[in-house]
Amino acid sequence: MDTTTQKPAAPPAPGPAAPPDTRAARGVTRPGDRIFLGLSRGSGILVLVLMAAIAAFLTYRASLAISQDEANFFTSFEWNPSGSPPEFGIAVLAFGTVVSSIVAMVIAVPVAVAIALFITHYAPRRLGGPIGYVIDLLAAVPSIVYGLWGALVLVPHLDGLYGWLDDHLGWTGILEWNDGAPRSLFTVGILLAVMILPIITNVSREVFRQVPRMHEEAALALGATRWEVIRMSVLPFGRSGVISASMLGLGRALGETMAVAMVLSPSFTINASLLDPGGGTFAQNIASKFNEATEMGRDALIASGLVLFVITLLVNGAARLIIARRKDYSGANA
Amino acid sequence: MTHATHDVRPSGSLRGATLPKWFPWAVAGASAALGYGISAAAGLHSDIQWALIAALLFVGGSFAVSAKVEGRRQARDRTATSLVWVAFLLAVIPLASLTWETVKRGIEVLDGYFLTHSMGVVADTEPGGGIYHALLGTLEQVGLATAISVPVGVLTAIYLVEYGRGRLAKAVTFFVDVMTGIPSIVAGLFVLSLWILILGMGYSGFAGSMALSILMIPVVVRSTEEMLKLVPNELREASLALGVPKWRTILKVVLPTSVGGITTGVMLAIARITGETAPVLLLVWGTNFINANPFQDPQASLPMYIYLQYTNGSEAAYDRAWAAALTLIAFIMILNLVARGIARWKAPKTGR
Amino acid sequence: MAKRIDVSGLNAYYGSFLAIEDISMTVEPRSVTAFIGPSGCGKSTFLRTLNRMHEVTPGGRVDGKVMLDDENLYGAGIDPVAVRREVGMVFQRPNPFPTMSVYDNVAAGLRLNGTYKKSQLDDVVERSLRGANLWNEVKDRLNKPGSGLSGGQQQRLCIARAIAVEPNVLLMDEPCSALDPISTLAIEDLIGELKERFTIVIVTHNMQQAARVSDRTAFFNLAAVGKPGRLIEIDETERIFSNPSVQATEDYISGRFG
User: Carries keyword Nucleotide-binding (chain C) (predicted)?
Assistant: First the structure.
């Protein structure tokens, strides 16, 4: 392609300005432009290379481990990669990760939506702004601090709740407590809920704030109570936004490492009761086992990390899809 | 159109029986007292329990009274209101407790000595020692990560906004999104497998910086992109129409216009990676001694220090962990506040 | 069914700012009353005090009396939610619920007030859509989203939604300002039909429209920017447009200001 035949940026013609799309084609004639474009395109390509490298190297190391695995990688309850023969599987980790995330979501999503509604629709106006600001800041508190708080403050306070759950819901089998320290997947779920609460609240609050005033007034003018206004105009408008906010929170809960590692007392078993200590999550297992692992052990941990990577990719992909659909939807009504 | 039949019209009175304004407060007070009484009588000790009982009494009580006096619709409205308030108060408890405990316990050993000494000569179970080595490590690792991420991130954003058309730009956008969702431990594993297991390099602060960069780059790209998009197109066209080359237009017009927003984004990204523990744990390894060279030998870092003190398990170590946590939070909060300050200060110029 | 509105000594505030001052007027049942006046003179604010919508804007506050037949809307023990059911409202921009179908939009108000049989709802929806001259255009797509209709159709959908609950009064806040001339004409025709059944109050910027649709016209003005709006006069539309009793009204109508 011969770009030099194109007109240089000569005296500005009074005619219609060139549409922005042609700027790129026109601008690459000067050395300065060429270098700058090269640099910025190079950075973009570097990002692609980085992602490809992440996927490739994780897969490579993981395949080294899995090829020597004598147990089924997906279904085995064992984690003994340094043994002979090496045997390890991710069933326990997958179970723990999913269960703790579900507990976290069940607690955090309704509460976060309620707080977002509180800030946008219920709190006195002078209170709503500052509360939103503080929750914004709480979203920035690092997970290690949540972990420290969870282990040293939350866990000692949970005996009462555990006893109560055992007394009243113990018969379900899921919430049976056999007097261990309350360092179970359930506690992990509670802590994760506290951690993702600010994130989900922040995004939901933004979504609720964007509900056009006229939709709310439409409901009000029909004689709707405040709750009916929310149900008729706020929640339908914000639904997809809340879902994608929850997905973001879920992504963080799935990948959370330190807080889980500090609160859970891990073991490679699956307990029917959520309140019994034991179990583990992908991220926690990597952090806890890493220090003492042999090279084979590290590769096995990388293999489990790869699975976590794929899971979070799927969750985040789903969130993006929902956000993209929402754009179409709100565009149609703009 | 003839007059419609009015069979579906409910009674047209404007006068609903309305409960007085103090009603919710009265119910709240009564529920709190009753909840406390019940748990005292049943011999329950946990604060969480009596709060839960009181909350349930409050929601149920106001619904029952309101349904009787005001009707079902009003009662449902009140239930929603009380649920929202209860949810808010329940959520405040852990978040307030987190802040309170960190400040209260952190302040105990946090002083000038703590900030300026390492753990080099202190046994883990003894009181004393400090976080100097960890602070130094964190600053170096975060500084290096920023030095890598900001140029790459800003240039990528410039490519996407100013040049990016077609398939490459779409791919970059997509993978930046994907990168945003990488769990930090996975980023750590990647650098581990490439840098340490395959290339055979040792544990070092720089290895940690690389993992932190992977976490930081997408955040910088995203926020810079948003800021560049806010620069009005007329400004670019005005400059181009004067015969200014595109690259100079970007450097002299576009970037200066959005520099406030970009700075804010970068500072928030720094705040985010400063607290990252998992990748640092895998790659920097940790030490009790001062190591000022991030390119060789293990270093310490503030978040990892908290973790190591916690796992140590003695009272003195817990004190140190809380003090380090307070330092870390203070650092991140200052970054956040300054970043927001810049955003607010610069807002009228860019965010028209 | 249609009720008389009797306003006396009404002030409305935004925070500490007095937006309209000391308004007294009577709105006759089964007639159309138009509010005209320059921008910012408080006519929309006044309209919103008639169904207690003013107080939902932050800082909004009202004192004075608004009698709907023999009940004061601002009296003790009055439920604003019940008021808004009795006094319906149509807004400047069409605002059907975007996530609801045409059918659900019309049924929304009824569903709030309890459960109805499907056949009953069908009846009311059809009757209201016919009442809003919209039935023939949408009867084949009742289950499509209301936001898919044209602007004029959406506004008539909003009118159908408002009349479905059989209010006593229908307030319209510049209902045609976002519409093209043909849709405007359709709405004006509709207003002519609806006044057989409802007390209608319409705020408009368009004086020809006020002259075309209304029986009585009220002229609002404000002394200066930052001063509260006041009612200058209210009279038969014909008189206001031919021989108003106040000079300011004549100046405004003849286009000398505003």
Answer: yes
Cis peptide before A85 (omega within 30 of 0): yes
Write the DSSP assignment of C37-51 as a string of letters: -STTSSHHHHHHHTT
Interface of B with C (CB under 8 A): 1, 3-4, 6-10, 12-18, 73-74
Task: Report residue C159 CA to chain centroid gap.
Answer: 10
> Residue C70 pLDDT > 80, yes or no?
yes
Q: Is residue C87 part of a domain?
A: yes
On average, the pLDDT of chain A sits at 84
Residue B92: CB atoms within 10 Å: 14
Which of A44, A143, A198 lies nearest to residue B277, judging by beta carbons? A143
Tell me the pTM: 0.86
- Chain A residues inside the 8 Å CB shell of B44: 160, 164
Q: Which fold has domain B132-350?
A: MetI-like fold (1.10.3720)
Say whether pLDDT at C113 is over 80: no
Length of chain A: 334
CA-nearest of C91, C92, C74 to C83 is C74
Structure tokens at C234: 């209210």
Domain borders along chain B are 23-106, 132-350
C233 part of a folded domain: yes
| 3 state DSSP class of C174 | coil
The structural domains of chain A, with segments of one domain joined by +, span 92-295
Query: Would C238 be classed as within a structural domain?
Result: yes
ipTM of the complex: 0.86
Tell me phi and psi for residue B342, to 5 degrees.
-60, -45
Task: Return the CATH number at C38.
Answer: 3.40.50.300
Burial class (CB within 10 angstroms; exposed 0-12, middle 13-18, buried 19+) of A334:
exposed
- Yes or no, beta carbons of A222 and C85 under 8 Å apart: yes
Total domains in the fold of chain C: 1
Asked if the structure places residue C124 within a domain, the reply is no
Q: Which residues of C touch B17 (CB under 8 A)?
A: 77
